[in-house]
Specification:
Largest sheet: 2 strands, antiparallel
CATH topology of the domain at 5-42: Histone, subunit A
Order of helices and strands: HHHEE
Number of strands: 2
Mean pLDDT: 90
Strand content: under 5%
Helix content: 25-40%
Low-confidence stretches: none
Shape: elongated
Number of helices: 3
CATH architecture of the domain at 5-42: Orthogonal Bundle
Length: about 100
C-alpha cells in the first residue's frame, strides 16, 4: 500500500498541517517507507510463535517470607499521646 498525493493532502488537512511542496514529497516518501515496512512485517509467518507478556522472559526473584525484625509496637506507642490495647487513639473527625 502506498499513499497518493490526494491521500497525503487529505491527511495533512485533517492534521491542520500546511506543507510546502518539498515537505509533501519528503513526507510522502517517509510514510510510504513506513507502510512498506508494515507490509513486510505482515508477510512474516507468526503462526507458530506464542504471544509473550513481556519481550524478556524474566521471573521475579522473591525472598523467603520470614520475620526479620522483632515487634516494637510497645516501644513506638510509648511516645503516642493516646494508645490502648495496641491501637492508636485519635480524635473523632467524622460525626
Amino acid at each position: 500500500m502506498s499513499l497518493s498525493g490526494d491521500d497525503l493532502a487529505r491527511v495533512a488537512k485533517l492534521a491542520r498541517l500546511g506543507l510546502t511542496t518539498e515537505e509533501k514529497e519528503a513526507t510522502a516518501t517517509q510514510l510510504n517507507g513506513i507502510l512498506a515496512l508494515i507490509d513486510r512485517m505482515q508477510a512474516v509467518d507468526t503462526d507458530s510463535v506464542e504471544p509473550l507478556a513481556h519481550p524478556l522472559e524474566l521471573t521475579q526473584v522473591l525472598r523467603a517470607d520470614e520475620v526479620t525484625e522483632h515487634n516494637q509496637r510497645d516501644h513506638y506507642q510509648r511516645v503516642a499521646p493516646h494508645a490502648q490495647d495496641g491501637l492508636y487513639l485519635v480524635p473523632r473527625v467524622v460525626e
